[in-house]
Design brief:
The chain has about 280 residues and is of the alpha+beta class. The chain has two domains: about 140 residues, S-adenosyl-l-methionine hydroxide adenosyltransferase, N-terminal (Rossmann fold, 3-Layer(aba) Sandwich), CATH 3.40.50.10790; about 100 residues, Bacterial fluorinating enzyme like (Elongation Factor Tu (Ef-tu), domain 3, Beta Barrel), CATH 2.40.30. It contains seven helices and 13 strands. The strands form two sheets. Strands 10-9-13-7-8-12-11 form a seven-stranded antiparallel β-sheet. Strands 2-1-3-5-4-6 form a six-stranded mixed β-sheet, with helices on both faces. Helix 1 packs parallel to helix 5. The radius of gyration is 20 Å and the shape is elongated. The termini are far apart.
Length: about 280
Amino acid sequence: MKGKPPIVALLTDFGLTDAYVGVMKAVILSRRRDTVFVDLSHNCPPQCIETASYLLVSAWPYLPRGTVVVAVVDPGVGSDRRELIARGAGRLLVAPDNGLISMVHRMGMIDGCHRVEQTRLKAVARGRERSATFHGRDVFAVVAADLLRSHRIVGAPVDPVLIPALATPPRSSAVPGDEVEATVVCVDHFGNVITSIHRGDLPEDGAVGRVEIRTRGGKRVVLETVVSFYAEVAPGDDLVYVGSSGFVEIAVRNDSAARRYGIGVGDRVVLRVGAPRGRSARP
């Protein structure tokens, strides 16, 4: 809005040990000195597009209208993958076209995507040479700063690259006992395991039931303690619940579910709809 400083929200896997994040901010500030930054996360696991996609969808509804989001988790940096500008709900997103936007796209938060044209990038880059390994600085920060000034999306509309496991809602039905298959998309700071199953994927009258986890190492874990919040179980007990962003999560109270069960991003999850609440069955 006029009279208010522009907002840029940053999501990267750069960490905070190196200067990468600071340099990106400096590039933007050199073009808009009144920019306000929101650091969504810089500790996304390196090259983990699944977790980046989840972090983005969990933050998107809470960002003020007019925010420009710069999401840089980019294992294909330097290749021929495209750069995108996406729009939705009064916000703009600048990101590599590598599937990172899959979950916000799936949840209907994106209205359209456009390719960043190289002619525009050259026009706003002020003659600086683009590196092959730091597009966060040389591409995405530059485009974001230009959007802060103009709010003009210049570029051909494109269909973005989407990761099927993240972009397609799991199949379910209204019959209790049916199974919904999904994947682990994030392990948070506490070791809670977040799945790609959203409450909206479940039948209207279907509760979260027993959850079976199939790890990449062939391990099978079955959990049946379905609750609403952590304090419903004793410290050290496991639980299944719908988390604050609406996705089904697996946790151990006051401990790490990921460590206890050896669960990681990419492991498969099978949720049985409408199963009765009960105590957890340890593998």
